[in-house]
Design a protein that fits this description.
With about 625 residues, the protein is of the alpha+beta class. Helix 7 links the parallel strand 14 and strand 15.
């Protein structure tokens, strides 16, 4: 008897030393409904049921959805989608909202408050989103009583962050936040047994240079987050039209901030939305080169989203990765991005992950497969650069890659400039990457009808062919076919000789009225040169081009720079050398603030819980002893 009592007491004492964890019960909210299937403008809460046997689709332009908050529930009353500010017309990223069979849509007016708005905010989960809906990852349920026009909501509060939580901060634009991609990433992590939290520092059409600027609102917001919360990872994604130099300059400022926070910086190699095979491959190479160069320079991990998308487009073209504007990513595209993040950043295989984001299981399986394949398979952009010329079986390589040059043109002020803050060329004309359209970031513009570009080949050798592209026909830029181009060479950089036989290859009209003309001169017999000059006389007042190629015989070249004096980082790697998410600037919400209230659970709370647990155990043990002694006394 004594032994059993001792065992019981020991067990009680042991239990008493374990802190008790309390779980909040489901929270309940309610709201009154103003009507069914009516315009939500001027109303607070309107319900749109689907009593049919097919998915109900409501066009964005109907029922005042432009200024409404939207929540979609399935037949079981589970919230599956949330979003706001749906707009109609060309360029809209989402033209409709879909209600599943037996489900319903709850639309909240612009001035709504109270419980219904609280539920909406819970579903948004601190994500940034407008002009669209996204998948909900929180467990929120609702019932609609049409007899008394009443809504009842229930949800279970999320667990707080702890010291073990891996905290991610995402910095970028709509290519990051659209369709709630960071939340899908969190849900994938949860399904894989990983405790992860996500925080947004994103704005439509944002550049990393704006986050790097301490005087810019975006820069202030980022610094506030880094100063008030400790992160484990910070993911950076730049605008589609950002140049490598712009991104590089921004990272040079941003990375020390991340290091000071104690986090690890990561890169998100954004996708291209081009479906034309040649343009898509062109953009895949451009994005890959840009982010791969930055990753190598700063020793950073990156998620090759552009490769995952490319793999999926080529393997499963039936899966639509893009929104209604054919620019932003769709729910499927968002899931593919999140899976690629999971594999790239955390090394967790996405194949077999049980989180599906309400997508068809077969589609989920394919997207998981493409995410893994995009990361695992090696990619070489060299075949897209076309930096060689072949004639009569002999190859001539582009010896101008990475070479310095000078210009006497007038600086163009804007994203397509070729002039840095120091007044020197940015190097776009000899980076080995030619543009297809005049709106691409690879374009370097000058504001003048005439100018010279002089390239120093940094050595002497034989050259066979020189080319330059020219763009125009859009944005008020002159017709490139009406330009006059001259090619000149020199063996001392002072006296130049004009080459005869320039050929003009006119292109067909391209998207948005752009025209591209390629001017070339090919010599019957190669000539020696140390410098190459291209002279431009264009229609209008803008000289708009992306690349100058000088093809020569490498074996004949002797460098004019002693090899030991060339810094290793300045030696060009010939294997490495605008597309924008349309309408990213649409109806952007301002004064967005990130919720940093979910901080790590204070250690003191755990100590208090432990002490209370011990006291409770002691009291309970004392009670048992008293009860046993009392019973013996009664005997």
């Amino acid at each position: 008897m004594k032994r059993s009592v001792i065992l019981i007491l020991a067990l009680i004492m042991l239990l008493g030393c374990v802190p008790f964890t309390t779980y909040a019960a489901d929270v309940k909210y309610s709201a009154n409904v103003d009507g069914v299937d009516i315009d939500v403008s001027g109303k607070k809460v309107v319900v749109f049921p689907n009593d049919g046997d097919t998915v109900r689709t409501i066009r964005s332009g109907r029922y005042g959805f432009k200024n409404a908050f939207l929540m979609v529930f399935d037949k079981n009353g589970q919230m599956i989608e949330v979003g706001k500010n749906l707009i109609d017309g060309d360029g809209s990223p989402q033209l409709s909202v879909k209600i599943p069979v037996g489900g319903f849509l709850v639309a909240l007016g612009p001035n709504v408050s109270g419980d219904a708005k609280k539920v909406f905010d819970l579903a948004m989960n601190d994500a940034m989103l407008y002009n669209a809906t996204m998948t909900v990852i929180r467990d929120i349920k609702c019932t609609f009583n049409d007899s008394n026009m009443d809504l009842s909501f229930t949800y279970t509060p999320e667990k707080a962050e702890t010291e073990k939580t891996k905290k991610f901060l995402f910095v970028g634009n709509s290519a990051t936040y659209f369709n709630g991609t960071p939340l899908k990433f969190k849900a994938l992590c949860d399904a894989a047994g990983l405790d992860v939290s996500v925080t947004y520092c994103t704005n439509g059409a944002a550049y990393l240079s704006e986050f790097a600027d301490s005087t810019h609102d975006y820069g202030k917001k980022l610094r506030n987050l880094l100063n008030t919360k400790k992160f484990d990872y910070v993911v950076f994604q730049d605008a589609a039209s950002a140049t490598e130099k712009q991104a590089d300059d921004a990272l040079a400022t941003l990375l020390p901030l991340v290091e000071k926070n104690g986090a690890e910086a990561l890169l998100y190699m954004r996708y291209t939305s081009e479906l034309d095979p040649e343009i898509r491959k062109h953009n895949v190479a451009r994005y890959f080169i840009l982010y791969d160069n930055l990753a190598e320079k700063y020793s950073l991990k990156y998620a090759p989203i552009v490769l995952s998308f490319n793999q999926c487009v080529e393997t499963y073209p039936e899966i639509d990765l893009y929104g209604d504007d054919d620019s932003h990513h769709s729910a499927e595209g968002s899931y593919l991005i999140a899976c690629t993040w999971l594999y790239s950043y955390l090394g967790v295989d996405p194949v077999g992950n049980t989180y599906t984001a309400n997508l068809d299981p077969d589609v989920v399986e394919k997207l998981q497969e493409m995410a893994k394949k995009g990361v695992d398979e090696k990619y070489d952009p060299a075949e897209m650069l076309q930096n060689k010329y072949t004639e009569d079986g002999k190859e001539y390589h582009n010896i101008a890659i990475g070479k310095p040059y000078k210009s006497n043109g007038t600086k163009y002020v804007g994203n397509w400039t070729e002039t840095g803050d120091d007044g020197k060329p940015l190097g776009k004309y000899t980076d080995g990457f030619a543009a297809l359209f005049g709106s691409e970031a690879a374009i370097g513009g000058y504001s003048c009808p005439e100018m010279d570009i002089t390239i120093d080949l940094e050595g002497k050798g034989e050259i066979k062919r020189i080319t330059t592209d020219l763009f125009g026909g859009a944005w008020g830029i002159g017709d490139p076919n009406k330009a006059e181009i001259k090619f000149l060479v020199s063996t001392d950089g002072k006296k130049f000789t004009e080459l005869e036989g320039t050929v003009k290859e006119e292109s067909e009209d391209q998207a948005d009225d752009w025209k591209r003309t390629l001017y070339t001169v090919t010599l019957e017999t190669p000539v020696e040169a140390t410098h190459v000059k291209v002279r431009y006389a264009v229609e209008g007042n803008f000289c708009w081009l992306s690349e100058i190629n000088v093809f020569g015989d490498k074996s004949t070249f002797t460098s004019s720079i002693p090899e030991e004096s060339i810094p290793e980082e300045s030696i060009p790697d010939e294997s490495k050398s605008e597309e924008s998410c349309a309408n990213e600037s649409m109806t952007e919400e301002t004064n967005q603030t990130e919720d940093t209230s979910k901080t790590e659970e204070p250690k003191n709370n755990n100590i208090v819980k432990a002490v209370l647990g011990v006291l409770f155990g002691v009291l309970l043990a004392g009670g048992v002893i008293f009860f046993i002694s009392k019973k013996k006394t009664n005997k």
